[in-house]
Design a protein that fits this description.
The strands form four sheets. Strands 2, 4, 5, 6, 8 and 9 form a six-stranded mixed β-sheet that branches. Strands 12-18-17-14-15 form a five-stranded mixed β-sheet, with no helix packed on it. The chain folds into three domains: 2-18 and 28-165, Immunoglobulin-like (Sandwich), CATH 2.60.40.10; 173-284, Sandwich (Immunoglobulin-like); 287-322. By secondary structure, the protein is of the alpha+beta class. Helices cover 17% and strands 41% of the residues. The chain is built from four helices and 18 strands. A hairpin with a 4-residue loop joins strand 17 and strand 18.
Length: 323
Amino acid sequence: MRSRILLQVVSLIGIFGLLGSSYAHAASNVANGFKLSPVRIDATIEKGHSVTENVFVTNVNSYQITAKAEINEFTASNDESGSPAVILDNSQPAPANSFRAFTSTIPDITIDAGQTATVPVTITVPQNANSGGYYGAVRFVSVNTANGQSVTISASVGTIFLITVPGKLTEQLQLVDFSAAQNGSTASFFSNSKNLQMVTRLQNTGNIHLAPNGKINITDGGGKVVETINFNNTNPRGEVLPGTTRKYTYNIQKQDLFGRYSATAYLGYGTLGQVLTVKTSFWVIPFWILVVGGIALVSIIGGITYVVMRRRNSPRHNAHVKK
């Protein structure tokens, strides 16, 4: 259990380094960082061909350092954020589409202080490879520091690779959820319009990464569009990896909502221009209106009951009954 927790912690640290431009200094305060670019490389490689992509590694220290390259697989994290979860334990079984299996070994490289080294990463796709997506990371760790100590594997920075091998590609997204939410909790009724969000969860059931994009229109009860949300309109766009679910959350900016609203998402994805359209509705009614309405309803019911009972107990009504 202890080793498993340690691996998870190291993986998390590796992710933070992977997504940033440089990693934090070690606890000894000895500067042993790298600066790396690009952070992400997308490439399409035909079967039976090779592609070499350059990664630029800068030594930001005041002394010479030797960089060791580590080649790992990665998948999406379990929190549906789309963040890469690097598989640091290379003894684990490789996925069906293994990035490591196609990537040539990268020799250690010595970089002088303040200098940048060009590191070629060669990926060779065999003729019998599966079509689809291959996902990996090339990380760099320091094997020497100013005091001669090695840096731990967690102190790393890297580039993620999203490789497409053409052929029989299945581009398919399925909607898991499309709901309004408040502070992260989905619902269909809200007592105020503060911190409202639209939450969309999409599952990739194909074999290649997909980047849906489009818009969400929010309309009032009369059909008027009160707000338009751009969906996944970033550069690069957030991908949904095969076999994973990704959650996209966007804040609703309009604050004076009242009544019933509809939200419609128009999402496009894939090379064939597939379109996914989905609609939901929600209510926003302030709590004080509910209280006043409840009191009014109780008062009306009480008034009607009082009138009916009084009529039944009136002398005229009793005399009529005796006849």
